[in-house]
Amino acid sequence: MSTLNSAEEKKPSYAAHIGLDWADQKHFWTMLTADGKCTRGDLKQTPEAIEIWAAELAQRFGGRPIALALEQVRGALVAILSKYAHVHLFPVHPTKLAHYRLSVCPSGAKGDPSDADLILDYLVKHPERLCCLEPDTMETRSLQFLVEERRKLVNQHTCQVQILIHWLKQIFPQMLEWFDNMSTPLVGDLLQRWPQLPNLQKASAKTLRRFFDQHNCRSEERIQQRLEEIDQAVPATNDAALLRTGNLCIRISVQLLASLRAGIAEFDSQIEAIYLIHPDRFITASLPGAGPALEPRLLAALGTNRERFESASNMACCFGIAPVTESSGKSRWVHWRWACSKFVRQTLHEWANCSIRTCGWAREHYDKQRLKGKGHHASVRSVAFKWIRILFRCWRDRLPYSEQRYLEALRTNGTAPSTPAPIVGESTSALPGTRWEGCGDFAKLAKVSS
């Protein structure tokens, strides 16, 4: 009872509730005050107009808090409104509002002013289904932005590599045989200096050897093989129209790849600098298989607000790892979760995949899922679901993951493995008699470690 009363005391008494339908140029809002009066208006998307509007609200209600709901978690409007302490933001998922609109208006009719009314109606009638937007620490939010934008650059880099390979296959296919990776500075510099095979064949062997040496190519056998193949190569096509377009696309792709490599390196530097000073770094640094690329991403996904997740199940649902079951009558369908952050789900999936190479029980569980007939990705998601329970307890109690403590917990439960835990980096496929059951019950581990 005291917990309930304390929770109710934490909820502020809002002077007004506002539903805001945002747009690129102008927003529509509907406001309901504590005395039951409803007003409507519009607002331009400029810092000056929003500043005046927020100041008027603060003056009208004496600085008391105001609840404002909108269909946005990030964006220009949220960035501006977040600096006003008296405006409490409540993001509403667009899909949730779309289904709510159909329940209110089956015809599907919508408009900006009516959407503002609908958002306000949802905020007033279903406040328990909305969470106030509480920004995390500066270090965590910086990591969140940096790791997500870095991934976008990596995707662009992959796209440009595919474009480069596409055109090389048509006008310069020998490059794909001479070099294994088309995204390296070696290939880019070579194509910039000798964009076509005839240009490359005109270069002397001494010049080419010096070029390879400057790019850290030390294998004499490989260099000699390339020189011989360059001398014997034949142009793939003489089509002037194709060569004109292909050479232009290749040159642009090479330039973009160089810029993307530099950008990714700059992101890596910024991420590393912030990650090293993060107070929760010791948690993700203790996770097997994470490494320097996935540790900051995992830390950004977790955050520092320990009240964000009530349970490991809640975390698994938020991260998109928990499956979704749809049943009606005799039909039952289990599928993966669609309404989640795809980037966070990808992070957990990649980490679980890496962990099966270094963690004994993870490999054991993965092999069991494969023996049941499940595919690779379904088995990896099952491992990730197991990891979530451990990760949640480590994160909530601020404890690093320890294989030794975990084995002690298994021994206490009578489920300790019959063979020693594998050394990090050692293959676990050659452990036929190993038993790693009870791996998700990390809640009992805390009792052992305490």
What does the secondary structure layout of this molecule look like, with pairings?
Elements: H1 2-10, E1 16-21, E2 26-33, E3 38-44, H2 47-60, E4 66-70, H3 76-81, E5 87-91, H4 94-104, H5 112-125, H6 138-171, H7 174-178, H8 185-193, H9 197-202, H10 205-214, H11 220-232, H12 240-276, H13 281-285, H14 291-302, H15 312-318, E6 324-328, E7 331-335, H16 342-355, H17 360-371, H18 376-397, H19 403-413, H20 443-449
Parallel strand pairs: 1-4, 4-5
Antiparallel strand pairs: 1-2, 2-3, 6-7
Helix pairs in contact: 6-12, 6-14, 8-12, 14-16, 15-18, 16-18, 17-18, 19-20
Would you kindly provide a brief summary of this structure?
The chain is α/β, with parallel strands linked by helices.
Low-confidence stretches: 1-9, 418-450
Q: What is the percent of helical residues?
A: 55-70%
The average pLDDT score comes to 87
Rg (C-alpha, Å): 29 Å
Through-space gap between termini? 29 Å
Please give the number of β-strands.
7
Shape: globular
- Biggest sheet strand order reads 3-2-1-4-5
- Tell me the fraction of residues in β-strands, as a range: 5-15%
Number of helices: 20
Task: Sketch the major β-sheet.
Answer: 5 strands, mixed
State the secondary-structure class.
alpha/beta
Number of domains: 3
What order do the SSEs take from the amino end to the carboxyl end, as H and E?
HEEEHEHEHHHHHHHHHHHHEEHHHHH
Molecular structure report:
- The protein is 57% helix and 9% strand.
- It has helices at 2-10, 47-60, 76-81, 94-104, 112-125, 138-171, 174-178, 185-193, 197-202, 205-214, 220-232, 240-276, 281-285, 291-302, 312-318, 342-355, 360-371, 376-397, 403-413, 443-449; strands at 16-21, 26-33, 38-44, 66-70, 87-91, 324-328, 331-335.
- The chain has a five-stranded mixed sheet. Strands 6-7 form a two-stranded antiparallel ribbon.
- Residues 1-9 and 418-450 have low confidence and may be disordered.
- Helix 8 (185-193) packs antiparallel against helix 12 (240-276), helix 15 (312-318) crosses helix 18 (376-397) and helix 19 (403-413) packs across helix 20.
- The chain is an alpha/beta fold and 450 residues long.
- The chain has three domains: 14-135, Nucleotidyltransferase, domain 5 (2-Layer Sandwich); 142-273, Helix Hairpins (Orthogonal Bundle), CATH 1.10.287; 282-449, no CATH class.
